[in-house]
Each structure stands twice: as structure tokens, then as C-alpha cells.
């Protein structure tokens, strides 16, 4: 059982000033609207209705935070989170690139997302979700360019891999890694950028993504069903 399975809804944020005043590492899921961010979060956290997933693009318009740690399995889901035991936050970022979003909303998105990924110290890594059939759109590249100067890792997840055959999958993965390797800093040094294939539908890449996220979030100790001692009030 992954620690990600403990995830619980934490808070929704629509302005940077409302970001949680926590110090634990954060892992943020970014990507185009409809890329499959919310679906992937639900699968990785093994909870159907945790992140809102929808057939209507552009549904996730705020930053939704989920907490890992501080909520024992034995507790009722509405019980408060023990903040001393909070280990990590997972952020579901609003999807970008949705054509029908008005100018004002687009600007709001740009500010919220750009500022968050560039300035949030607690942000440990970005999970960049891209449809495997059309990765690295302009806005995806914008996201990479915003985040690269922080020097922190980006793990790209190529979603909906069920839409590709075996050969296409191999090629897409190879091309994506080459694209990521083409990013270099002023000294010609590469960045800690990785990539994998994923399908919620066919359950491809779930273990790989789980291991990577746990590593990036510093969630060591892995398998952690609470012992009877831990789930009782001391
Ligand atoms: N075929 C296939 N469809 C998927 C997969 N993952 C998600 N989808 C579908 O893609 C659509 C969008 O999924 P969401 O998870 O809501 O996408 P999102 O990135 O959260 O979108 P926003 O909230 O708008 O940013 C839904 O209809 C999902 O059912 C997958 O692995 N394979
Ligand atoms: Mg969503």
C-alpha cells in the first residue's frame, strides 16, 4: 500500500495569498485541460472521487491540495488532519489551454500558475501530464521554461497511452526523453527531467508513477498501514 493512498482533501486555493502555510514538500500536477490530471490523482491515491475528474474540459480551475500523512486510516474521513504528522501535499493545478476560457480567466490562470511554480519554495517537483498523442504543446513548454530555472525535477507523465500501439508508445517515449534532454542551462548542463507512459484506463505505469512521486516527495518508509498502537490515542 502506497502512502499516497492516505490522501485526503486538504484545501482549495484561488489566490496565491491563500496558499497553505505549511512547510512540507509539495508535488504539483500540471498539464493541459483534459490531459488526465485529476483521473491520475484518483488512481494513484486509490480513491475514485478524491480529485474531481470530468468529461468537460477546464473543470479544475483552482489549486486543489490533498494531504498525505496526519490522517490515520482508523480515523473518520472528516476528522481534522494532525498537522504535526503531515508529510506532503499533492496539488492538482488548474488545466491550461482550454480555448473557451475568456481573456480575464486566462490571465488569472497565467498569474496563479506561473507564480506558484516559480515561487513556491515548498514545491519539490512538478508532475507534467501530457496527452501521449500530442505532448509538448506551447503551454507545456511554457510551463517547463517557468520551472526549469528552479533546478527542481520535472517528471513527465504521457497519459492516455491506451490510445497508442506498442510501436507508437516506444517512439513517443523516446522522443519525449530526447526533447527533455534538449533543455540545458547557461552552462550547458541538463535538468533532472524524466518521463514515462501512463494509462488510467489500462492501468499502465501506475507503479512507476507511484514510486517516482514517493521519491520526489521524500515519502520514504513506503508501506505504512498504521500498527494498532499508532491508530490509538496515546
Ligand atoms: N482513454 C483514456 N482516457 C482518459 C485517461 N485518463 C483520463 N481520461 C479521460 O480524459 C478526460 C479528462 O480527464 P481529467 O482527469 O478530468 O483531466 P484533467 O487534466 O484533470 O482536466 P482539467 O481538470 O480540465 O484540467 C476524462 O474524460 C477522462 O475519463 C486514460 O488513461 N485513458
Ligand atoms: Mg482536473
From TrEMBL:
Residues 215-234 are annotated as: Disordered. Keywords: Cell cycle, Cell division, GTP-binding, Magnesium, Metal-binding, Nucleotide-binding, Septation. One of its GO terms (molecular function) is metal ion binding. InterPro entries: G_ENGB_dom (IPR030393), GTP-bd (IPR006073), GTP-bd_ribosome_bio_YsxC (IPR019987), P-loop_NTPase (IPR027417). Its cofactor is Mg(2+). One of its GO terms (biological process) is division septum assembly. Necessary for normal cell division and for the maintenance of normal septation. Belongs to the TRAFAC class TrmE-Era-EngA-EngB-Septin-like GTPase superfamily. EngB GTPase family. This is Probable GTP-binding protein EngB. It comes from Pseudoduganella guangdongensis.
Amino acid at each position: 500500500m502506497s502512502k499516497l493512498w492516505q490522501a485526503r482533501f486538504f484545501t482549495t486555493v484561488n489566490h496565491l495569498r491563500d496558499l497553505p502555510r505549511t512547510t512540507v514538500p509539495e508535488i504539483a500536477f500540471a498539464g493541459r485541460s483534459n490531459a488526465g490530471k485529476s483521473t491520475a490523482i484518483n488512481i494513484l491515491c486509490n480513491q475514485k472521487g478524491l480529485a474531481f475528474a470530468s468529461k468537460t474540459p477546464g473543470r479544475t480551475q483552482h489549486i486543489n491540495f490533498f494531504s498525505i500523512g496526519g490522517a490515520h486510516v482508523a480515523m473518520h474521513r472528516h476528522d481534522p488532519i494532525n498537522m504535526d504528522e503531515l508529510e506532503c501535499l499533492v496539488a492538482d493545478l488548474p488545466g491550461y489551454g482550454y480555448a473557451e476560457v475568456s481573456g480575464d480567466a486566462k490571465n488569472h490562470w497565467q498569474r496563479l500558475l506561473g507564480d506558484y511554480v516559480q515561487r513556491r519554495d515548498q514545491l519539490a517537483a512538478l508532475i507534467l501530464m501530457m496527452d501521449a498523442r500530442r505532448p509538448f504543446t506551447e503551454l507545456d513548454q511554457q510551463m517547463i521554461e517557468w520551472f526549469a530555472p528552479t533546478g527542481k525535477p520535472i517528471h513527465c507523465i504521457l497519459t492516455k497511452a491506451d490510445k497508442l500501439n506498442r510501436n507508437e508508445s516506444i517512439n513517443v517515449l523516446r522522443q519525449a526523453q530526447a526533447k527533455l534532454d534538449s533543455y540545458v542551462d547557461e552552462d550547458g548542463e541538463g535538468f533532472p527531467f524524466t518521463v514515462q507512459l501512463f494509462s488510467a484506463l489500462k492501468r499502465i505505469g501506475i507503479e512507476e508513477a507511484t514510486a517516482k512521486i514517493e521519491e520526489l516527495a521524500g515519502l520514504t518508509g513506503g508501506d505504512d498501514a498504521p500498527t494498532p498502537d499508532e491508530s490509538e490515542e496515546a
